[in-house]
Amino acid sequence: MCGIVGYIGQKEAWPIIVKGLKRLEYRGYDSAGIALVAQGINSYKKAGKVTDLEAFAEGKDLRGRVGIGHTRWATHGEPSDRNAHPHFSEDERLAIVHNGIIENYATLKEELASRGHTFKSDTDTEVLIHLIADIMEAENTDLLEAVRIALTQVVGAYAIVIADREHPNQLVAARKGSPMVIGIGEKEYFIASDASPIIEYTRNVVYLKDQEIAFISDDALLLKNIDNEVQTPYIQKLEMHLEMLEKAGYEHFMLKEIHEQPRSIRDCMRGRIYPQEGKVQLGGIKEYAEKLRNADRIIIVACGTSWHAGLVGEYLIEEYARVPVGVEYASEFRYRNPIITEKDIVIAISQSGETADTMAAVELAKERGATILGICNVVGSSIPRLTHGGVYTHAGPEIGVASTKAFTAQVTVLTLIALYTAQLRGTLPQSKLVELLTALEDAPLLVERALKCDEATQYIASEIKDSTNAIFLGRGIGFPVALEGALKLKEISYIHAEGYPAAEMKHGPIALIDKEMPVVVIATKNSSYEKVISNIQEVKARKGRVIAIVTEGDTAVRELADYVIEIPDAEEALLPLLATVPLQLLSYHTALLRGCNVDQPRNLAKSVTVE
Ligand code: HGA
Question: Which fold has domain 247-441?
């Protein structure tokens, strides 16, 4: 949430920052701003997208080889020109961009106001830069030291970059809880919330650690921690490629990412499954094999789509490895007083690896002695660094705000963990492991076939596009799929949608069903097929419009449903991978027909780095 880009070097900063902000727009897009340091600081900020900022700045003085930029997802203060970053100190000497929340901003603001500070915005960020300027003056220190002292007084999360009019060849950056990467070029540095704005300039990067402060000039990088100790930067090589960040001919990132799923699922399994031997190998967690073998319980913590993947994991792990699993919203778990023992395994799932609530849940479980494993997509992000071990999903950068390929990759990893744990605990006969892994190996091809429903989903989307509500029903492993389908539809098309266990419909939602109500039912041939057919009958008896996801060749559901979408016949464990695909496409086409911004739906941002 909120994207930051900074540049210091020999090139003009504006184009580099604008391009970088466009790459980070998935993180927030309610306003944008850039400050350029040349003779003084010129700043341009505008509510709206980065393109609105560009239009606003056209013809203005955009010179400067040092600059900081921001694309915002507002937490404190409505999205407006005034609240857009950068924010300034009272004398306008210092400019800041910030990702995160200063939780004690109100107290700090009051104290600063009592010392005569006045504020131009409603943000917590402006309070922070005033505090830094106040300390600089009161303690007669340089910027680096003032930032360090200020951060000892701050409660909350931050990634910040600060420019100084009096030292135009320096930037100061710091982080706690929000991500920040520094790219090292030839006499130039790039600073960003993730590596995507940096990749075309350099592959050498330093991921700032929590509570580290960086002093950056065009030929030096100095790192300190909050206790004022100098730190040695650990330079890593980026493995991302530029093409991964482009649309590759697709109209939207979401559509590209939906179609990438056969590839991403294959990448996720590469080197990890040996179907003929009936063996799963997970290098990132093998050190914890003994713990998994003896675990009394597995707790999965996650938010949003990742939580739905967790529910699929619950089903698969309990079915195959016979370990009790609880799936928790990270945001609730962290504020309860959960019972966690040293024999518990906690699995944290987060696409970005930066989800604030999931990170906090991990910290809590770690303090209480559990073994923590992560399932993340972004290599080098915070959660993989906090956990004991983990399995990367290797889905590649996901730019569309509504998660698609990251979800199916998470489900794939959870399937691997379920089978790995079954292998360790001896809960499945070897022949069953061979059978399941052979089926899993075919998943990319089957997903490829499931993608053929593009035309069918487009047609159904045209039929439901004017609905105001929708219900998604599923049973067993189909239930989390229904939840994910409903979330996708509401996220990008703004149609109110609810996912329900099919049998629960009778306990409430059935009251909503009439001839206007689209009811999407996961009705594939699996263990609950007959029961689901009865649920469809119940919907039809009340004149609901049934859209059924069925197994290829199905006739029974076809007779009842208004619309059917076929997916390939497969092992039940693959149902979530296959049935999710048509639901993603259905939401995509519905949102398009309603004229919505598919890749950047209103009010949302991808990487939720605030609580
Ligand atoms: N609190 C700041 C930054 C918001 C943010 O990082 N969102 O993810 C603001 O509201 O401007």
Answer: Rossmann fold (3.40.50)
Residue 268 annotated among the catalytic residues of the structure: no
How many other CB atoms are there within 10 angstroms of residue 140's CB atom?
A: 9
Distance 2 CA to ligand 1 centre (A): 6
CA of 545 to the centre of ligand 1 (A): 42
Instruction: Tell whether ligand 1 has an atom less than 6 A from the beta carbon of residue 87.
Output: no
Ligand 1 within 6 A of 351 CB?
no
Q: Is the pLDDT of residue 348 over 80?
A: yes
Tell me the CATH number for domain 451-598. 3.40.50.10490
452: which residues sit within 8 A by CB, 6+ positions away? none
Residue 218, classified by CB atoms within 10 Å of its CB into exposed (0-12), middle (13-18) or buried (19+), is: middle
Q: Would you say the CB of residue 30 lies under 6 angstroms from ligand 1?
A: no
Distance 194 CA to ligand 1 centre (A): 16
Which residue among 124, 161, 193 has the greatest number of ligand 1 atoms within 8 angstroms of its CB, and so is best to mutate? Answer: 124
Say yes or no: CB of residue 73 within 6 Å of ligand 1. yes
Q: Indicate whether residue 355 lines ligand 1 (CB < 6 A).
A: no
> Is residue 610 in contact with ligand 1, taking CB distance under 6 Å?
yes
pLDDT for 468-516, tens place per residue? Answer: 999 999 999 999 999 999 999 999 999 999 999 999 998 998 999 999 9
Our mutation pick for probing the ligand 1 site, out of 24, 75, 127, 606, counting the most ligand atoms within 8 A of Cβ, is 75
Residue nearest to atom 11 of ligand 1 (CA): 74
| Per-residue pLDDT at 605 | 80
| φ, ψ for residue 215, nearest 5 deg | -105, 120
Within 10 angstroms of residue 601's Cβ, the number of other Cβ atoms is 20
For 139, counting Cβ atoms within 10 Å of its Cβ (0-12 exposed, 13-18 middle, 19+ buried), the class is: exposed
Identical fold, 3-244 and 451-598: no
* Dist CA 485 CA 398 (whole Å): 18
Give the phi and the psi of residue 119 in degrees, each rounded to 5.
-120, 145
CATH code reported for the domain at 3-244 = 3.60.20.10
Q: Is the distance from CB of 581 to CB of 447 less than 8 angstroms?
A: yes
Domain locations along the chain: 3-244, 247-441, 451-598
Helix (H, G, I), strand (E, B) or coil at 422: helix
Whether 422 and 295 have beta carbons less than 8 Å apart is answered as: no
Q: Does the Cβ of 101 fall within 6 Å of ligand 1?
A: yes
**Range in 75-84, 146-155, 259-268, 378-387 the model is least confident about:** 378-387
Residues 74-95, mean pLDDT to the nearest whole number: 97
Q: How confident is the model at residue 606 (pLDDT cuts 50, 70, 90)?
A: confident
**CA distances for 573 relative to 380, 381, 403, 416, 483, angstroms:** 30, 29, 21, 11, 17
Q: Is 596 a catalytic residue?
A: no
How far out from the chain centre does Cα 372 lie? 19
